[in-house]
Amino acid sequence: MSWIPPLVVAVPLLAAALVAGGDHVLPSRVQDAIGVAATAAVCAFGIVLMRESMSQDVIHWFGGWRPHSGAAIGIDFAVDPFGAGMVALVGAVAVLSLVYARMYLQELARLFDALLLLITAAICGFAMTGDLFNMFVWLELMGVAAYALTGFEVRQAGPLQGAVNFSIVNTIGGYLVVIGTALLYARTGALNFAQIGRTLAGEKPGGLLVVAMTLIVCGFFCKAAVVPFHLWLGDAYAVAPAPVCALFAAVMTEVGLFGVARVYWTVFDAPFGAHQQVERAFLIDLDGSRFCLHAVPNPAPALRVDDVHELHADASAINAARFPCPFVVVIAIKPQVGMRLRRQQAERVQFGLQVAELAEQPKNAFTLVVFNDGGSSAPAGIASRSRHR
Amino acid sequence: MSFLPYAVAAWICVVGLYGIVASRNLVHLAVCLTVTQSSTYVLLLAIGYVRGGGPPIFKGVELGTTAVDPVVQALTLTDVVVSVTVVALIIALALDAHEESGTADPDQLAELSG
Description:
Structural class of chain A: alpha/beta
Strand content of chain B: under 5%
Number of strands of chain A: 6
Radius of gyration of chain B: 19 Å
Order of helices and strands of chain B: HHHH
Order of helices and strands of chain A: HHEEHHHHHHHHEHEHEHHEH
CATH architecture of chain B: Orthogonal Bundle
Low-confidence stretches of chain B: none
Radius of gyration of chain A: 21 Å
Largest sheet of chain A: 4 strands, parallel
Number of domains of chain B: 1
Shape of chain B: elongated
Mean pLDDT of chain B: 86
CATH topology of chain B: Helix Hairpins
Helix content of chain A: 55-70%
Largest interface: A-B, 36 and 36 residues
Distance between the termini of chain B: 52 Å
Strand order of the largest sheet of chain A: 3-6-5-4
Largest sheet of chain B: none
Oligomer: heterodimer
C-alpha cells in the first residue's frame, strides 16, 4: 500500500490546478464536484492508511531513493496511525468547509476552492513526511495558502491587517524551524527523522541540541498559537471567512502541536527522554484566563476545569477512558485555582507529571499543561500587549 | 572551523527581527523579513562549508576530491524559493492595504481595523 501516501498529496494538488486552470471554462458545478471529490478522496485515503498503518508504518520513498546501510538520502513519507488520522481529519473538514463555502460565499471566485485544496494537500504532506526539511516546506506551503485565505476578502482593511499579522508571525516561526533544522543537520548529518533519532540515541543532550529543540518547538508553537506566540490568532480568526476559520480551528493550529509531537518523539526523545522526566510535561505559567483560552481556542480534547479536585477527577476520567487522543490540554481557568496551585509549586509539578503519565498511555501522546496563575508574574508583560485587551 | 559565519548569521537574524518590530511600513517590513531569512542562508552554507572543498559536481573529477556539502545548498535553494512566495504575498497585501486605506503603516492599519 505504499503507493497511497503520494496520492494523498497529489490528488488535491492536481485538483487545485484543475480548478484554478479551469476557471471560466468548466461549469461551476463541475468545479465544485472536483473539489469535493478530491477532499473526500483524501479522507478515504486517510482512513485506509489508518487501517494499514496499525500493524506497520506505511513508507514511500520518492524516486526509489531507499536508504543504504543506514543512511537515508532520499525523502520519504512515513505514515503512522497518528499521521493517517490527521489526514483523514483534514479531508473530512475540507469537504465540509468546501460545501459550506458554496452556501456562505456564493459570489466568490474559484480560486477559493483552489487555495483550500492547496492547504489540504499541505497539511497532509506535513502529517506524513518523514523528513525534517520537507516538513518545513509543507509548513510554508500551508502558510502561504492560509495567509491568502485569511485575506480573501481583501476589499476591507480588517482582513488585510489580520492576514499581515498572521503571515509575519508564522513566517518568522518558519525561519526558526529552518535554523533548528540546520543545527540538527550540522550535528547529525541527517534530515530523516528516524536517522536523526538513531544518531542521537544514547548521547548526552548538549547545548546545541537544546538550542535546536527550542528553535524548532518555538517555530511550531507559532503555528499552534501557543502562548506567548498567540498574538496573531485573534486577528486571523476575526477576519477569515467562516469556512476557512473552520479549517483553521479544527486542523491548522493543531498541526503545530502535531509538528512538536512528531519531532519530539522521533528526534529528541532519545537524547532527552532518558535524562529528565520533567521534560515530558511542558509547564507554561501565564496570567489572565482569557489568554489561556486565546492560546488554545479549539484544543483537541481540552479539559476546562474550575477546581483542583475537578482537575483530578477529569484526569482520572482520562485514565479510565484511556482517551485515544494525541494531545491532552489541561487549562485551569479560575484565578483562585491558579493561586492555590502557585502556593503548591511542588504539587503542581507533580500534577503535570501525573497528567503526562496519563497522556503517555496512548502511543505518541503529547501533553501541554497550561496553568493560570491569576497573580502578576513575568509573562503578563507579553500578554498585556495583545491588541485584544 | 571559524565561528565567525555563525556569529554573522545570528547577528543578521537579530537585526532583521529588530527591523520587523520597529517597522513603520509594510514594504519595509517585508524587506526586514527577507533579511531575517538571509541569516538562514548564511547558517546553512556555513554548516556545509569544507575548507578547500570544490563545488559538489563530480563529473570528470577524480574520486575522493574534497567538495562542499551539496545538501545544504539544495536546502538553501528550497528555502529561497519557498520564502519568496511568502514575501510576494506580503507585498501584495501591502499594496492592497495602501490602495484601500492610503497607508502602509501597520500601526495605522491596526487602528483602522479597530
